[in-house]
Specification:
This protein is α/β, with parallel strands linked by helices. 32% of the residues lie in helices and 19% in strands. It has eleven helices and 13 strands. The strands form three sheets. A six-stranded parallel beta sheet has the order 2-1-3-4-5-6, sandwiched between helices. Strands 7-10-11-12-13 form a five-stranded parallel beta sheet. The longest helix is centred in the last third of the chain and has 17 residues, at 227-243. The N and C termini lie far apart (50 Å).
Length: 324
Amino acid sequence: MNVLLLYPKFPDTYWSFRYALSFQGKRAAQPPLGLMTVSALLPPSWKRRLIDTNVERLKDSDLEWADVALLSGMHIQQQDLVSLVRRCRAHGVRTVGGGPIASSVPAQELEADHVVIGEAEDLVGELARDLAAGSARPVYQAAERPTMECSPPPDLNLIRMKKYSTMTVQYSRGCPFHCEFCDIIEIYGRRPRTKAVAQVLAELDQLYAAGWRGPVFIVDDNFIGNKVRVKELLKALGEWQRERRMPFRFITEASLNLSDDRDLLQAMKDAGFASVFLGIETPDESSLAATQKHQNTRRDLLESIAEIQKYGIEVMGGFILGFD
């Protein structure tokens, strides 16, 4: 089976980083980690090609080679994802749509032959068997959220690392908070699930062996969702980094209560964290309360940011404009 893994373009919005990337001589901010992980779950005998259309052009020869195309993306990529689906189908290539977008819009809006809803780890084996047998169903939906221990290292062989500004690693999924506007808790749940420390270090070993040096984005939506386990990871990360003379500069996302825990901040500094994205949303406490973002009302925003900055960690603030 010849499998084409396709990643749609980001439109010219915040998410594309198009103009900033040109200063770095890069084509895209990060590689498609989801598709790289799915590739590692496919049968070893299957042949694979990954085309990230933010980095390279999808050619007709790629479509002529493929038996099936697996497409993944976020909601912001829907327009280009559907265009890719239509192009595949015009060439007689079966299509499977998945990723976060498949959990956010009705299946028919993706126009794919088959749609996978939910996380891939427990679904890909059955999907692959059905595709090989020609009996794949229109919709596959995960019965439950898988443990992170069953998530394999991503397939790095599929990408050209030099085209990207940052490499990516995932440590956890889920967030313990209730923010009304956020889809993370709907897709990944409110109980943070984490990889074992050894899994994360193995992925870093893989990046290091492949020659990567520089920024690594730990893509968790809330890196500190499970503070006990993340401190265990940070201790190991710090040791790993020092043994190799600090080859990576980590970036991640977290909640504002990061500022409450100085031991955690020190551990992040020691491990080489350079910046963190925080969902500040608004300084208006009534809007925060209305959207159930109560954790941001329990501490002074400016003091919290200043406390994080004391540890040499840049704060990137996320804001919502246009609350009701």
